[in-house]
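Q: Fold this one first, please.
A: Sequence and structure below.
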Amino acid sequence: MEKWLQELSDEDRAFIKRFILASGSLKALAKQYQVSYPTLRIRLDRLINKIKVVDDPENRDPFRMKLRSLAAEGRISTVVAKEIIKAYQKEKRGKENG
């Protein structure tokens, strides 16, 4: 199984399956989920970003990948994620040099 697929939640994988079975129609999928098209589009955009995070070679560090995934899901802001990653990298460099 592809790494990006392994990193997705069961809910995300179910969403992808329903999307495929709806022939990629966001309109049809929005009806199934009983949400508006814009709401479904936001969910799809977040899922796309999450997959990009997992595929990004810069995210080999599990901590960094988790933070970027949380930001992609909208669970924390990208600003906060970047600040934490920056502090983490600084701390990590300090330990390597110390």
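Q: Good. Now the second chain.
A: Here it is, same layout.
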Amino acid sequence: MVMEYRATHKYARITARKARYVVDQVRSMPVESALDMLKFSNRRAAPMIAKVIKSALANAVQEGGADPEKLVVLNATVNEGPTMKRWRPRARGMAYPILKRTSHINISLADREAVGSAVKKGK
């Protein structure tokens, strides 16, 4: 059985589509190299995702006493959150909608050796 350590950031003020570009890059990477990659990324979602990974890392150390060097990003997903609807005044009394989208960022970490053995066993 693989022990997972999770962290989430709900209602992040970024669209899910833009955050997924960054999450796709760090999925299945070791935690240290994922944080290094996010540090030098120019994307707006990078600091948000780095903060979630650091939170999951803190959960792993506190709950299970896991070794931070052996952890890998197991699952990383970004789902859509609620959309705030605002209105922009236009000519002749019209109004155009502005959609301020949010997203939920979910990260789970696992031990590298446990993930490798679970894959070999077919689970």
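Q: Anything worth noting on the second one?
A: The chain has one domain: 4-121.
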